[in-house]
Amino acid sequence: xxxxxxxxxxxxxxxxxxxxxxxxxxxxxxxxxxxxxxxxxxxxxxxxxxxxxxxxxxxxxxxxxxxxxxxxxxxxxxxxxxxxxxxxxxxxxxxxxxxxxxxxxxxxxxxxxxxxxxxxxxxxxxxxxxxxxxxxxxxxxxxxxxxxxxxxxxxxxxxxxxxxxxxxxxxxxxxxxxxxxxxxxxxxxxxxxxxxxxxxxxxxxxxxxxxxxxxxxxxxxxxxxxxxxxxxxxxxxxxxxxxxxxxxxxxxxxxxxxxxxxxxxxxxxxxxxxxxxxxxxxxxxxxxxxxxxxxxxxxxxxxxxxxxxxxxxxxxxxxxxxxxxxxxxxxxxxxxxxxxxxxxxxxxxxxxxxxxxxxxxxxxxxxxxxxxxxxxxxxxxxxxxxxxxxxxxxxxxxxxxxxxxxxxxxxxxxxxxxxxxxxxxxxxxxxxxxxxxxxxxxxxxxxxxxxxxxxxxxxxxxxxxxxxxxxxxxxxxxxxxxxxxxxxxxxxxxxxxxxxxxxxx
Length: 505
What we know:
The strands form three sheets. Strands 3-2-1-4-5 form a five-stranded mixed sheet, sandwiched between helices. Strands 8-7-6-9-10 form a five-stranded mixed sheet, sandwiched between helices. A three-stranded mixed sheet has the order 11-12-13. The chain has three domains: 123 residues, ATPase, nucleotide binding domain (Nucleotidyltransferase, domain 5); 160 residues, 2-Layer Sandwich (Nucleotidyltransferase, domain 5); 140 residues, Orthogonal Bundle (Hypothetical protein af1432), CATH 1.10.3210. It is built from 21 helices and 13 strands. Strand 1 and strand 2 form a beta hairpin. It is α/β, with parallel strands linked by helices and 505 residues long.
Protein backbone atom coordinates (compact mmCIF):
# COMPACT_ATOMS: atom_id res chain seq x y z
CA UNK A 1 0.00 0.00 0.00
CA UNK A 2 1.41 3.41 -0.92
CA UNK A 3 1.50 6.36 1.40
CA UNK A 4 -1.16 8.07 -0.70
CA UNK A 5 -3.52 5.08 -0.45
CA UNK A 6 -3.11 4.93 3.31
CA UNK A 7 -3.33 8.65 4.04
CA UNK A 8 -5.81 9.92 1.44
CA UNK A 9 -7.77 12.78 2.98
CA UNK A 10 -11.50 12.22 2.61
CA UNK A 11 -14.29 14.79 2.42
CA UNK A 12 -15.33 15.92 5.86
CA UNK A 13 -11.93 15.31 7.48
CA UNK A 14 -10.26 18.15 9.38
CA UNK A 15 -6.70 19.36 8.88
CA UNK A 16 -4.65 22.21 10.28
CA UNK A 17 -1.60 24.29 9.42
CA UNK A 18 0.50 26.25 11.90
CA UNK A 19 2.91 28.98 10.78
CA UNK A 20 5.40 29.86 13.55
CA UNK A 21 6.62 33.10 12.01
CA UNK A 22 9.12 35.65 13.22
CA UNK A 23 6.44 38.33 13.60
CA UNK A 24 3.11 36.53 13.95
CA UNK A 25 1.99 32.98 14.66
CA UNK A 26 -0.89 31.82 12.46
CA UNK A 27 -3.07 28.74 12.46
CA UNK A 28 -5.80 27.71 10.04
CA UNK A 29 -8.17 24.81 10.50
CA UNK A 30 -9.83 23.46 7.37
CA UNK A 31 -12.32 20.80 6.38
CA UNK A 32 -11.79 18.82 3.19
CA UNK A 33 -14.67 19.55 0.80
CA UNK A 34 -14.77 18.28 -2.79
CA UNK A 35 -11.01 17.84 -2.88
CA UNK A 36 -10.18 21.30 -1.51
CA UNK A 37 -9.45 22.66 1.97
CA UNK A 38 -12.30 24.85 3.24
CA UNK A 39 -11.02 27.07 6.07
CA UNK A 40 -13.36 26.97 9.05
CA UNK A 41 -11.24 28.68 11.70
CA UNK A 42 -8.27 31.02 11.95
CA UNK A 43 -6.16 32.00 14.94
CA UNK A 44 -3.40 34.61 15.00
CA UNK A 45 -1.13 36.09 17.64
CA UNK A 46 1.43 38.86 17.21
CA UNK A 47 4.23 37.15 19.14
CA UNK A 48 7.09 39.17 17.55
CA UNK A 49 9.55 36.39 18.28
CA UNK A 50 12.27 38.02 16.15
CA UNK A 51 12.35 40.93 18.62
CA UNK A 52 13.46 38.51 21.32
CA UNK A 53 16.35 36.97 19.36
CA UNK A 54 19.63 37.94 20.99
CA UNK A 55 22.93 38.37 19.17
CA UNK A 56 24.23 35.10 20.66
CA UNK A 57 21.35 33.11 19.12
CA UNK A 58 19.29 32.74 22.28
CA UNK A 59 15.67 33.78 22.76
CA UNK A 60 14.79 36.02 25.68
CA UNK A 61 12.43 34.70 28.34
CA UNK A 62 9.58 37.09 27.54
CA UNK A 63 9.27 36.16 23.87
CA UNK A 64 9.84 32.48 24.58
CA UNK A 65 6.96 32.52 27.06
CA UNK A 66 4.73 34.40 24.60
CA UNK A 67 5.54 31.87 21.88
CA UNK A 68 4.79 28.84 24.04
CA UNK A 69 1.60 30.40 25.42
CA UNK A 70 0.36 31.02 21.88
CA UNK A 71 1.18 27.46 20.82
CA UNK A 72 -0.66 26.08 23.85
CA UNK A 73 -3.79 27.96 22.73
CA UNK A 74 -3.36 26.63 19.21
CA UNK A 75 -2.86 23.16 20.64
CA UNK A 76 -6.16 23.28 22.50
CA UNK A 77 -7.99 24.11 19.28
CA UNK A 78 -6.51 21.22 17.28
CA UNK A 79 -6.27 18.65 20.09
CA UNK A 80 -8.66 16.26 18.34
CA UNK A 81 -7.03 16.37 14.91
CA UNK A 82 -4.67 13.44 14.13
CA UNK A 83 -0.99 14.33 13.81
CA UNK A 84 -0.92 13.13 10.18
CA UNK A 85 -3.44 15.91 9.41
CA UNK A 86 -1.42 18.69 11.04
CA UNK A 87 1.63 20.51 9.70
CA UNK A 88 3.42 23.02 11.90
CA UNK A 89 6.48 24.84 10.58
CA UNK A 90 8.90 27.34 12.07
CA UNK A 91 10.77 29.88 9.97
CA UNK A 92 13.56 32.46 10.19
CA UNK A 93 13.86 33.12 13.92
CA UNK A 94 13.94 29.43 14.85
CA UNK A 95 16.38 28.82 11.98
CA UNK A 96 18.70 31.36 13.60
CA UNK A 97 18.57 29.97 17.15
CA UNK A 98 21.92 28.71 18.36
CA UNK A 99 20.24 25.65 19.93
CA UNK A 100 16.82 25.29 18.30
CA UNK A 101 16.05 21.84 19.72
CA UNK A 102 15.42 23.12 23.25
CA UNK A 103 12.80 25.53 21.95
CA UNK A 104 11.34 22.96 19.55
CA UNK A 105 10.90 20.38 22.31
CA UNK A 106 8.96 22.89 24.41
CA UNK A 107 7.02 24.09 21.36
CA UNK A 108 5.97 20.56 20.39
CA UNK A 109 4.85 19.87 23.97
CA UNK A 110 2.74 23.04 24.00
CA UNK A 111 1.22 22.43 20.57
CA UNK A 112 0.83 18.68 20.95
CA UNK A 113 2.20 18.07 17.44
CA UNK A 114 5.64 17.93 15.78
CA UNK A 115 7.15 21.21 14.60
CA UNK A 116 9.33 21.29 11.47
CA UNK A 117 11.95 23.93 10.70
CA UNK A 118 11.96 24.88 7.02
CA UNK A 119 14.67 26.60 5.01
CA UNK A 120 14.07 29.98 3.41
CA UNK A 121 13.64 28.41 -0.02
CA UNK A 122 11.22 25.79 1.26
CA UNK A 123 9.31 28.60 2.97
CA UNK A 124 9.17 30.33 -0.40
CA UNK A 125 7.85 27.20 -2.11
CA UNK A 126 5.05 26.88 0.44
CA UNK A 127 4.20 30.58 0.15
CA UNK A 128 3.94 30.33 -3.63
CA UNK A 129 1.82 27.19 -3.37
CA UNK A 130 -0.67 29.01 -1.16
CA UNK A 131 -0.74 32.14 -3.30
CA UNK A 132 -1.02 30.27 -6.61
CA UNK A 133 -4.10 28.36 -5.42
CA UNK A 134 -5.71 31.69 -4.54
CA UNK A 135 -5.20 33.25 -7.98
CA UNK A 136 -6.89 32.59 -11.28
CA UNK A 137 -5.13 30.07 -13.51
CA UNK A 138 -2.38 31.49 -15.70
CA UNK A 139 0.53 30.17 -17.74
CA UNK A 140 2.48 33.40 -17.26
CA UNK A 141 5.26 33.69 -14.65
CA UNK A 142 4.27 35.56 -11.49
CA UNK A 143 6.34 37.28 -8.82
CA UNK A 144 5.39 36.85 -5.15
CA UNK A 145 7.01 38.80 -2.30
CA UNK A 146 6.40 37.81 1.31
CA UNK A 147 7.86 39.99 4.07
CA UNK A 148 8.13 38.22 7.39
CA UNK A 149 9.50 39.40 10.69
CA UNK A 150 13.04 38.18 10.04
CA UNK A 151 13.32 37.41 6.34
CA UNK A 152 11.72 38.22 3.01
CA UNK A 153 11.00 35.61 0.34
CA UNK A 154 11.00 36.41 -3.38
CA UNK A 155 9.47 33.74 -5.62
CA UNK A 156 8.86 33.60 -9.36
CA UNK A 157 6.68 30.74 -10.46
CA UNK A 158 4.36 29.48 -13.15
CA UNK A 159 1.17 27.59 -12.39
CA UNK A 160 1.68 25.96 -8.99
CA UNK A 161 5.44 25.49 -9.30
CA UNK A 162 8.17 27.97 -8.26
CA UNK A 163 10.90 28.58 -10.81
CA UNK A 164 13.17 30.90 -8.76
CA UNK A 165 13.19 31.29 -4.98
CA UNK A 166 15.33 33.59 -2.87
CA UNK A 167 15.23 34.26 0.86
CA UNK A 168 16.87 37.47 2.08
CA UNK A 169 17.75 38.18 5.71
CA UNK A 170 15.66 41.33 5.99
CA UNK A 171 12.25 41.40 7.68
CA UNK A 172 9.88 43.99 9.07
CA UNK A 173 11.03 43.52 12.69
CA UNK A 174 14.73 43.11 11.99
CA UNK A 175 14.83 46.07 9.58
CA UNK A 176 12.85 48.38 11.88
CA UNK A 177 15.15 47.57 14.80
CA UNK A 178 18.34 47.90 12.78
CA UNK A 179 17.70 50.97 10.70
CA UNK A 180 15.42 52.96 13.01
CA UNK A 181 16.87 52.49 16.51
CA UNK A 182 14.89 54.24 19.20
CA UNK A 183 12.00 54.45 16.77
CA UNK A 184 13.30 57.65 15.18
CA UNK A 185 12.36 58.13 11.51
CA UNK A 186 14.64 60.39 9.47
CA UNK A 187 15.28 60.73 5.78
CA UNK A 188 18.97 59.92 6.26
CA UNK A 189 18.15 56.66 8.07
CA UNK A 190 15.56 55.80 5.43
CA UNK A 191 18.02 56.30 2.58
CA UNK A 192 20.60 54.14 4.35
CA UNK A 193 18.05 51.38 4.89
CA UNK A 194 16.85 51.43 1.30
CA UNK A 195 20.43 51.45 0.00
CA UNK A 196 21.64 48.53 2.12
CA UNK A 197 18.58 46.44 1.34
CA UNK A 198 18.95 47.29 -2.34
CA UNK A 199 22.52 45.95 -2.31
CA UNK A 200 21.27 42.62 -0.93
CA UNK A 201 18.67 42.39 -3.68
CA UNK A 202 21.25 43.01 -6.39
CA UNK A 203 22.48 39.44 -5.85
CA UNK A 204 19.51 38.12 -7.81
CA UNK A 205 17.70 41.15 -9.29
CA UNK A 206 19.16 40.73 -12.79
CA UNK A 207 18.13 37.08 -12.92
CA UNK A 208 14.62 38.00 -11.74
CA UNK A 209 14.28 40.79 -14.29
CA UNK A 210 15.28 38.38 -17.06
CA UNK A 211 12.72 35.80 -15.91
CA UNK A 212 9.96 37.86 -17.54
CA UNK A 213 7.24 37.74 -14.87
CA UNK A 214 4.08 39.67 -15.65
CA UNK A 215 2.26 40.35 -12.38
CA UNK A 216 3.55 40.95 -8.85
CA UNK A 217 1.76 39.92 -5.66
CA UNK A 218 2.40 40.67 -2.01
CA UNK A 219 1.44 38.12 0.62
CA UNK A 220 1.69 38.12 4.42
CA UNK A 221 0.58 40.63 7.02
CA UNK A 222 3.06 43.32 5.96
CA UNK A 223 1.73 43.42 2.39
CA UNK A 224 -1.87 43.45 3.62
CA UNK A 225 -1.10 46.29 6.04
CA UNK A 226 0.52 48.39 3.31
CA UNK A 227 -2.37 47.66 0.96
CA UNK A 228 -4.88 48.71 3.63
CA UNK A 229 -3.12 52.03 4.29
CA UNK A 230 -2.69 52.77 0.58
CA UNK A 231 -6.43 52.16 0.10
CA UNK A 232 -7.45 54.20 3.16
CA UNK A 233 -5.26 57.14 2.11
CA UNK A 234 -6.56 56.88 -1.48
CA UNK A 235 -3.00 56.70 -2.82
CA UNK A 236 -3.80 54.18 -5.55
CA UNK A 237 -6.96 52.92 -7.19
CA UNK A 238 -5.65 49.41 -7.69
CA UNK A 239 -2.76 47.80 -5.83
CA UNK A 240 0.45 49.28 -4.48
CA UNK A 241 2.61 51.46 -6.75
CA UNK A 242 6.01 53.16 -6.40
CA UNK A 243 4.24 56.50 -6.00
CA UNK A 244 2.01 55.19 -3.22
CA UNK A 245 5.02 53.78 -1.36
CA UNK A 246 6.80 57.15 -1.69
CA UNK A 247 3.73 58.87 -0.27
CA UNK A 248 3.70 56.42 2.67
CA UNK A 249 7.37 57.07 3.28
CA UNK A 250 6.90 60.84 3.31
CA UNK A 251 3.89 60.58 5.63
CA UNK A 252 5.92 58.52 8.12
CA UNK A 253 8.97 60.80 7.91
CA UNK A 254 6.73 63.80 8.56
CA UNK A 255 5.62 62.19 11.82
CA UNK A 256 9.21 61.25 12.68
CA UNK A 257 8.57 58.75 15.46
CA UNK A 258 7.41 55.12 15.32
CA UNK A 259 5.94 55.16 18.83
CA UNK A 260 3.38 57.80 17.83
CA UNK A 261 2.90 56.70 14.23
CA UNK A 262 -0.70 56.92 13.07
CA UNK A 263 -1.90 56.45 9.51
CA UNK A 264 -5.37 55.81 8.10
CA UNK A 265 -6.00 52.08 7.86
CA UNK A 266 -2.93 51.14 9.95
CA UNK A 267 -3.71 48.74 12.80
CA UNK A 268 -2.16 49.72 16.11
CA UNK A 269 -0.33 46.40 16.51
CA UNK A 270 1.23 46.73 13.05
CA UNK A 271 2.60 50.26 13.59
CA UNK A 272 5.81 49.23 15.46
CA UNK A 273 7.12 47.25 12.44
CA UNK A 274 5.44 49.15 9.59
CA UNK A 275 8.46 51.26 8.64
CA UNK A 276 10.64 48.20 8.09
CA UNK A 277 8.03 46.67 5.79
CA UNK A 278 7.59 49.82 3.70
CA UNK A 279 11.32 50.37 3.17
CA UNK A 280 11.80 46.72 2.13
CA UNK A 281 9.03 47.02 -0.45
CA UNK A 282 10.38 50.34 -1.70
CA UNK A 283 13.82 48.77 -2.23
CA UNK A 284 12.25 45.73 -3.90
CA UNK A 285 10.14 47.85 -6.26
CA UNK A 286 13.29 49.74 -7.36
CA UNK A 287 15.50 46.64 -7.72
CA UNK A 288 12.93 44.55 -9.62
CA UNK A 289 11.21 47.28 -11.62
CA UNK A 290 7.80 46.66 -10.06
CA UNK A 291 5.17 49.12 -11.25
CA UNK A 292 2.18 47.65 -9.45
CA UNK A 293 1.74 45.00 -6.77
CA UNK A 294 -1.54 43.37 -5.92
CA UNK A 295 -2.30 42.00 -2.46
CA UNK A 296 -3.08 38.32 -2.01
CA UNK A 297 -4.98 36.96 0.96
CA UNK A 298 -3.31 33.55 1.00
CA UNK A 299 0.20 32.77 2.19
CA UNK A 300 2.29 29.96 3.67
CA UNK A 301 -0.40 28.52 5.94
CA UNK A 302 -2.67 27.89 2.97
CA UNK A 303 0.33 26.47 1.13
CA UNK A 304 0.86 24.08 4.03
CA UNK A 305 -2.71 22.81 3.67
CA UNK A 306 -2.25 22.17 -0.04
CA UNK A 307 1.11 20.50 0.60
CA UNK A 308 -0.53 18.27 3.19
CA UNK A 309 -3.16 17.28 0.64
CA UNK A 310 -0.46 16.60 -1.95
CA UNK A 311 1.51 14.38 0.40
CA UNK A 312 -1.60 12.42 1.30
CA UNK A 313 -2.71 12.10 -2.31
CA UNK A 314 0.47 10.64 -3.74
CA UNK A 315 1.95 13.82 -5.27
CA UNK A 316 4.61 14.34 -2.63
CA UNK A 317 7.21 16.91 -3.80
CA UNK A 318 9.83 15.13 -1.70
CA UNK A 319 9.89 12.20 -4.12
CA UNK A 320 10.68 14.53 -7.03
CA UNK A 321 13.43 16.16 -4.96
CA UNK A 322 15.04 12.79 -4.24
CA UNK A 323 14.98 11.78 -7.90
CA UNK A 324 16.39 15.16 -8.96
CA UNK A 325 19.20 14.84 -6.41
CA UNK A 326 20.05 11.35 -7.67
CA UNK A 327 20.30 12.70 -11.22
CA UNK A 328 22.39 15.70 -10.19
CA UNK A 329 25.00 13.52 -8.49
CA UNK A 330 25.06 10.78 -11.12
CA UNK A 331 23.77 7.97 -8.93
CA UNK A 332 23.97 4.49 -10.47
CA UNK A 333 20.22 4.16 -10.99
CA UNK A 334 20.28 0.43 -11.73
CA UNK A 335 22.10 -0.33 -8.49
CA UNK A 336 19.85 2.03 -6.55
CA UNK A 337 16.79 0.22 -7.91
CA UNK A 338 18.23 -3.15 -6.94
CA UNK A 339 18.94 -1.96 -3.41
CA UNK A 340 15.56 -0.28 -3.14
CA UNK A 341 13.57 -3.31 -4.29
CA UNK A 342 15.49 -5.62 -1.95
CA UNK A 343 15.10 -3.22 0.98
CA UNK A 344 11.34 -2.96 0.44
CA UNK A 345 10.99 -6.77 0.36
CA UNK A 346 12.74 -6.89 3.71
CA UNK A 347 10.64 -4.00 5.03
CA UNK A 348 7.37 -5.73 4.25
CA UNK A 349 8.47 -8.76 6.27
CA UNK A 350 9.21 -6.84 9.48
CA UNK A 351 6.85 -3.85 9.24
CA UNK A 352 4.23 -5.35 11.53
CA UNK A 353 6.72 -6.50 14.16
CA UNK A 354 8.52 -3.15 14.20
CA UNK A 355 5.28 -1.14 13.84
CA UNK A 356 6.52 0.57 10.69
CA UNK A 357 3.88 2.34 8.59
CA UNK A 358 3.64 3.36 4.94
CA UNK A 359 5.49 6.60 5.65
CA UNK A 360 8.42 4.64 7.05
CA UNK A 361 8.42 2.60 3.84
CA UNK A 362 8.68 5.86 1.90
CA UNK A 363 11.72 6.88 3.95
CA UNK A 364 13.43 3.58 3.17
CA UNK A 365 12.68 4.01 -0.52
CA UNK A 366 14.12 7.55 -0.56
CA UNK A 367 17.21 6.51 1.39
CA UNK A 368 17.91 3.64 -1.02
CA UNK A 369 17.72 5.97 -4.01
CA UNK A 370 20.33 8.40 -2.70
CA UNK A 371 22.51 6.33 -0.36
CA UNK A 372 25.38 6.51 -2.86
CA UNK A 373 25.27 10.21 -3.82
CA UNK A 374 28.55 10.74 -1.95
CA UNK A 375 30.36 8.70 -4.59
CA UNK A 376 30.23 11.81 -6.78
CA UNK A 377 32.83 13.29 -4.41
CA UNK A 378 34.98 10.27 -3.51
CA UNK A 379 34.67 6.57 -2.75
CA UNK A 380 36.54 6.96 0.51
CA UNK A 381 34.06 8.01 3.22
CA UNK A 382 31.32 8.41 0.61
CA UNK A 383 28.63 7.82 3.22
CA UNK A 384 29.87 10.91 5.08
CA UNK A 385 29.98 12.94 1.85
CA UNK A 386 26.43 11.87 1.04
CA UNK A 387 25.21 12.78 4.51
CA UNK A 388 26.73 16.26 4.16
CA UNK A 389 24.96 16.80 0.84
CA UNK A 390 21.62 15.69 2.27
CA UNK A 391 21.93 17.94 5.30
CA UNK A 392 22.79 21.04 3.30
CA UNK A 393 21.09 20.76 -0.10
CA UNK A 394 17.94 22.68 -0.97
CA UNK A 395 15.39 19.85 -1.13
CA UNK A 396 11.87 20.99 -1.95
CA UNK A 397 9.30 19.53 0.39
CA UNK A 398 11.74 18.55 3.14
CA UNK A 399 12.06 20.24 6.50
CA UNK A 400 15.49 20.55 8.09
CA UNK A 401 14.72 17.75 10.54
CA UNK A 402 13.63 15.51 7.67
CA UNK A 403 16.87 16.20 5.78
CA UNK A 404 18.84 15.36 8.92
CA UNK A 405 16.90 12.09 9.22
CA UNK A 406 17.79 11.13 5.65
CA UNK A 407 21.40 12.19 6.23
CA UNK A 408 21.66 10.08 9.39
CA UNK A 409 20.43 6.97 7.56
CA UNK A 410 22.86 7.58 4.71
CA UNK A 411 25.80 8.18 7.04
CA UNK A 412 25.07 5.03 9.05
CA UNK A 413 24.38 2.67 6.15
CA UNK A 414 28.01 1.49 6.00
CA UNK A 415 30.92 1.08 8.37
CA UNK A 416 30.29 1.36 12.11
CA UNK A 417 27.31 3.64 12.86
CA UNK A 418 27.99 6.55 15.17
CA UNK A 419 25.43 6.64 17.99
CA UNK A 420 25.69 10.42 18.21
CA UNK A 421 24.29 10.66 14.67
CA UNK A 422 20.95 9.36 15.90
CA UNK A 423 21.09 11.15 19.25
CA UNK A 424 21.12 14.47 17.36
CA UNK A 425 17.77 13.68 15.72
CA UNK A 426 14.41 14.64 17.24
CA UNK A 427 13.18 11.90 19.57
CA UNK A 428 10.35 10.90 17.22
CA UNK A 429 12.84 10.00 14.47
CA UNK A 430 15.48 8.06 16.39
CA UNK A 431 14.00 4.57 16.42
CA UNK A 432 12.68 4.99 12.89
CA UNK A 433 16.17 5.95 11.69
CA UNK A 434 17.73 2.88 13.31
CA UNK A 435 15.18 0.48 11.81
CA UNK A 436 15.45 2.00 8.33
CA UNK A 437 19.25 1.96 8.56
CA UNK A 438 19.27 -1.72 9.52
CA UNK A 439 17.14 -2.68 6.52
CA UNK A 440 19.18 -0.54 4.15
CA UNK A 441 22.45 -2.08 5.39
CA UNK A 442 21.13 -5.58 4.69
CA UNK A 443 19.87 -4.61 1.24
CA UNK A 444 23.26 -3.11 0.33
CA UNK A 445 24.95 -6.26 1.63
CA UNK A 446 22.85 -8.58 -0.52
CA UNK A 447 23.36 -6.34 -3.58
CA UNK A 448 27.13 -6.01 -3.17
CA UNK A 449 27.79 -7.63 -6.57
CA UNK A 450 26.18 -4.61 -8.28
CA UNK A 451 24.66 -6.72 -11.03
CA UNK A 452 21.32 -8.24 -11.87
CA UNK A 453 21.24 -11.60 -10.15
CA UNK A 454 18.64 -13.70 -8.44
CA UNK A 455 18.73 -13.75 -4.68
CA UNK A 456 17.71 -16.69 -2.52
CA UNK A 457 14.31 -16.56 -0.81
CA UNK A 458 14.99 -13.81 1.75
CA UNK A 459 13.10 -14.02 5.01
CA UNK A 460 13.45 -11.78 8.01
CA UNK A 461 11.80 -12.16 11.39
CA UNK A 462 11.95 -9.44 13.99
CA UNK A 463 11.16 -8.59 17.56
CA UNK A 464 11.68 -5.18 19.08
CA UNK A 465 15.46 -5.58 19.43
CA UNK A 466 16.26 -8.74 17.45
CA UNK A 467 16.52 -9.35 13.72
CA UNK A 468 16.97 -12.84 12.29
CA UNK A 469 17.97 -13.53 8.68
CA UNK A 470 16.74 -16.91 7.40
CA UNK A 471 18.69 -18.29 4.42
CA UNK A 472 19.19 -21.67 2.70
CA UNK A 473 22.37 -23.36 3.91
CA UNK A 474 23.21 -24.42 0.35
CA UNK A 475 23.13 -20.82 -0.86
CA UNK A 476 25.45 -19.67 1.93
CA UNK A 477 27.93 -22.41 1.05
CA UNK A 478 28.03 -21.09 -2.50
CA UNK A 479 28.33 -17.44 -1.34
CA UNK A 480 31.07 -17.32 1.30
CA UNK A 481 31.52 -13.55 0.93
CA UNK A 482 27.87 -12.94 1.78
CA UNK A 483 28.16 -15.23 4.79
CA UNK A 484 31.24 -13.33 5.99
CA UNK A 485 29.48 -10.00 5.45
CA UNK A 486 26.50 -11.14 7.50
CA UNK A 487 28.75 -12.24 10.35
CA UNK A 488 30.58 -8.91 10.26
CA UNK A 489 27.25 -7.09 10.38
CA UNK A 490 26.54 -8.31 13.91
CA UNK A 491 28.67 -5.63 15.59
CA UNK A 492 27.40 -2.63 13.57
CA UNK A 493 23.82 -3.76 14.10
CA UNK A 494 24.55 -3.81 17.81
CA UNK A 495 25.37 -0.10 17.57
CA UNK A 496 21.81 0.34 16.27
CA UNK A 497 20.46 -1.50 19.28
CA UNK A 498 19.61 -4.56 17.19
CA UNK A 499 20.80 -8.12 17.81
CA UNK A 500 21.40 -9.73 14.40
CA UNK A 501 21.42 -13.48 13.98
CA UNK A 502 21.57 -15.89 11.05
CA UNK A 503 19.39 -18.97 10.71
CA UNK A 504 19.91 -21.60 8.00
CA UNK A 505 17.64 -24.30 6.66
